[in-house]
Amino acid sequence: MLMGVGSSGLPNLPTFCANIEIDEIRVAYCDSNRKTLNSAFDSSYSGFCFHLPDNFAHKLNYLKDFQYEAVGILQMITGCEWDDATGDVGIFLKFAYNGEDLFELDVKNLTWIAKNHQAVMVKDKWTNDEDTPLKNSVPLLKNVCPEDLKKYVSHGDHSQQKKGLPSVSLLQRTPSSPIRCHVTGFYPNSGQLYWRKNGEEIHEYVEHGEILPNPDGTFQMSVDFNVSSIPLEDWGKYDCVFQQPGLGNITTKLDKAVIRTNRVSPTDFPSHVISGVVGGLVLLLALCISGFIFWKKKNNGFQPANRSDKIEENSELQSFKDETRTVDGDQTSSNEQNHEKANGAEQIPETGIN
């Protein structure tokens, strides 16, 4: 698969770059800045590095005439597929502009299929410009591409030649979780994984996962089946099937005995482990109780006041005492004056005044 990207109006980025991949492994790369080809195989791809950039720039110019934007991004995906089991060969060629599908090649009729309104507007010009390149590229895609693909696979690394049998497992996290049928170690990245009941594929309560790569170059995938509403006595009617061309079917019966899980039954724990856990819980409980009692005593008992609190308290007490003395002094002075007045009144007859 060749993936090319041309752009205009994007600073600090190459105006063109391209990858070539075989089974999702990059074998060649180039861009308009470096003007060199990095290839894991040979230099036969040099043409696409030096001819496609001009072709992309030309297409971008007339595409921007129909869409007034400062930035334009044109993407192309083309390549071939070869089924080594059946010998079938397929080719594809697609274009997208600014993230939306633009044109797709109708291989059978050798015509362009417009994928949106903008593509309809430029279809005539696109067809005229692509007529000659299309006549030249289709034979290459149909003949040369599959032959190159066969050659690269036969001389490729170990992962591309890996033909080992994949392994299928039934997994479940908890008793209420769906049961996962998981297959790993298959190559190439194609195949079907599904659940059946009485030999018929089912879709209810089933959720399919994606095909994911493994570190060794093989692939894995999974499909979940929610069995919460399935009686245990009916489990024998269900199985999981992995199907791949040239490999046949790998069938795994839904059986509780073969389900793998990370749960551990209480009966599977060694007795000394259980004793250790119980002892640890008892010790933890004792520490919690002791801590609680200490906390209660600390919060309910007498506590020494802070020095700052004591100074403030003494200051308030001294102020209160001073105020008390002042009041007492005033009261005493008043009493003495009243007493003197009373004595003066009693001494009036003794002054000789009649």
Give an overview in words:
The protein has 354 residues and is of the alpha+beta class. The protein folds into 2 domains: 2-159, Murine Class I Major Histocompatibility Complex, H2-DB, Chain A, domain 1, CATH 3.30.500; 167-260, Immunoglobulin-like. It is built from 5 helices and 18 strands. It has helices at residues 46-64, 117-154, 158-161, 271-300, 307-347, and strands spanning 2-8, 16-22, 25-31, 38-39, 72-82, 89-97, 100-106, 111-114, 167-171, 179-186, 192-197, 200-201, 206-208, 212-213, 219-225, 238-244, 248-253, 259-260. It has an 8-stranded antiparallel beta sheet. Strands 9, 10, 13, 14, 15 and 18 form a 6-stranded mixed beta sheet that branches. Strands 12-11-16-17 form a 4-stranded antiparallel beta sheet, with no helix packed on it. The longest helix is centred in the last third of the chain and has 41 residues, at 307-347. One of its GO terms (biological process) is immune response. Residues 307-328 have a biased composition (Basic and acidic residues). Residues 166-259 form the Ig-like domain. Keywords: Glycoprotein, Membrane, Transmembrane, Transmembrane helix.
